[in-house]
Amino acid sequence: MLPVVALVGRPNVGKSTLFNVLTRSRDALVADMPGVTRDRHYGICRTNEERPFVVVDTGGLSGIDDGLDGLTARQVRLAIEEAQVLVFVVDARDGLLPQDRTILDELRRSGKPIIAAVNKTDGLDEETALAEFAVFGIAATLPLSAAHNRGTEDLVDMLLPLLPAEPDEAEEQVEDGSIRVAIVGRPNAGKSTLINRLLGEDRLIVSDVAGTTRDPIRVPLERDGKRYTLIDTAGVRRKARVEEAVEKFSVIKTLQSIAAAQVVVIMIDARENLADQDLTLIGHAMEEGRALVIAVNKWDGLDAYQREQCQRALDRRLVFVDWAKQVYISALHGSGLRELMRAVMRAHASATKELNSSDLTRTLEKAYESYQPPLVRGHAPKLRFAHPGGSNPPTVVIHGSRTKHIAPAYRRYLENFFRKRYKLEGTPIRIEFREGENPYAGKKNVLTEAQQRKRQRMIREMKKRK
């Protein structure tokens, strides 16, 4: 396992900005307001290729132990417990505050090496900024500006001697071969609760307050011999209701997580039934071509009549994705999770199934014989052969003539025919038509002298008959 370094400090001191610089990513959400980060966010720093290490971005310690601040503080303490080195981030512009002393006392009680990173020193006298924090008595204190990537290399050089010995060769292959599963839905649908239940621990903050999750959090999971990377995302509301800039960025991160995933699990609150926003999220997943599973959560709180009405509504409104498996679960109590993970496995297997050209062509011939496409200007489109065009989603490329005029209904017929033939469940299928160029297009046949004389004789004969 790679060594772990935790970034700890007050809210809005620049921990997420420093995290993005060290991991060379934009995974952590950054905004000029306190309390944006709440869950633990993991990434790998490869600035020194010989000694990579895991960086943990944490929420700010506000000194309040109630509500969301208390849940955030618990996540920070879990990060402190699992880290080998702690980076105490302070704000040079705000100066030394009593809250910094309280946090430092808690870090020292952990007994782990501490580095004091004095952030936001751009435009300030570094010696003066460091002098104010000299009362900490931390030998490893350095100035930096995370926003401008100044001083971060010195921070890495200071970290490396404090890290444990060389890691195992298993190293950074943490997510290799794992199935990336994005859990998306509206606020308060139970996404974080589901991941905590699958993990068997309180890995993510769960609260009745809508919009608790802001950053997309990636969590590794091994279940029944299979490895997954679960991506918890922020709840997506209707665009008209999104006003704060932080929530807008959270929605963008959620859509990016859908694009990065291999399987998308749409969480639906059974008590509120299917909303238009759920259909919008399903549409985004289909546009990205991602395998899809519909998870109807909070099923345990409904009586028999409510369940029947909910199932009818889902069947009626989800007819355009009838290939997606519907699973009824309770994330809080854990019912239906086995069926959910099986549906995820089947959807991933279908999305990544390998197809071959000869079998696709034979299937296309059977589909064409069973039902031919409608005539185009008196001529039937010809479908000659097919070959695979990619996976995730499965793509079938069909070559023929007059394919530009094939009706959408016939395209859907071919999708359903291929789906039934190859038993593809939980994944969309893309059909691409290719039409070969006519080699005689634009060319005129020039008649010889003999052909011209023959043509003239035929014209005269026709006139005589009239």
Automatic annotation (TrEMBL):
Residue ranges annotated for the EngA-type G domain, each copy included: 3-167, 179-352
Gene3D superfamilies to which the protein is assigned, alphabetical: 3.30.300.20, P-loop containing nucleotide triphosphate hydrolases
Annotated residues for binding of GTP 2: 185-192, 232-236, 297-300
Residues binding GTP 1: 9-16, 57-61, 119-122
Sorted UniProt keywords: GTP-binding, Nucleotide-binding, Repeat, Ribosome biogenesis
PROSITE patterns per record: G_ENGA
Record InterPro entries: AAA+_ATPase (IPR003593), G_ENGA (IPR031166), GTP-bd (IPR006073), GTPase_Der (IPR016484), KH_dom-like (IPR032859), KH_dom-like_a/b (IPR015946), P-loop_NTPase (IPR027417), Small_GTP-bd (IPR005225)
Family as reported in the entry's similarity comment: Belongs to the TRAFAC class TrmE-Era-EngA-EngB-Septin-like GTPase superfamily. EngA (Der) GTPase family.
Protein function: GTPase that plays an essential role in the late steps of ribosome biogenesis.
Quaternary structure, from the entry: Associates with the 50S ribosomal subunit.
Name of protein: GTPase Der
